[in-house]
Amino acid sequence: MSKLAALDQLLEEYKQFDYHQDPLLKKRLHEAQDWLKARILDTHTELFNRPENKLMADYFIHRLYGGPDFDPLAVQIERLLKYAHKAEKIIPENAIKTGLKSIGLAVLAMQLDEQVAKQLLKDYPADQSIDDEMMRLTLIKLDQAEQRLQQLSLLDDLGVALDKYMRSFLMHTAFKMCKGTAHKYNFQLMYEFIGEGFVAMKPMKSAADFIHAFTLKEREIVNNVHSGQANPFRI
After folding, report:
1. Helix (H) or strand (E) holding 100
2. R_g over Cα of the chain
3. What positions does the domain DUF8198 occupy (predicted)?
């Protein structure tokens, strides 16, 4: 079986999102994601602003939490699957495994956020600016606690994988050597998606430690929301 077979399922999940055919939902989804990203930046200001963490923080915000940045990547993933045998020769196996974890997280984030966007459209005018109270009530109504905690567990798994597979000098060298070939076959977005993980890790002692510090606070927020706290996002 192809090492990229799991991408088929992820791509199919991505294609099933309703926002592709609904401009109003797409707009609300992006607004919900903008709110989430702003909240994450506010919650983790101290962690994200450490010099060694800034690149990984950017990777989190623009890659692992979905949003418009994922759409052109999905188009390239579909093309890549048509040439899976070539891609597997170009990209090292452990880089593929780690890239799949990252893409899976991005798709899961979009799935959960689309549910939020749909609920917001049901309960509020489409042009009403999203605020903390709207989001608090929406998250309680959707009861996504279990899925959000699963998302955080998958993030912790990614941190372990990044430390295990992406710190190898041989791996990094092999990955850099295939850059020209990746561009030749127009796999550059996929290559860059994985490559940004390499770059983001370089200043850090441990990606797993960074991600654990992030998920620790995020779990606290999930618990605050579903325990009925009035200001669950302020920790």
Report:
1. helix 93-123
2. 18
3. 17-232
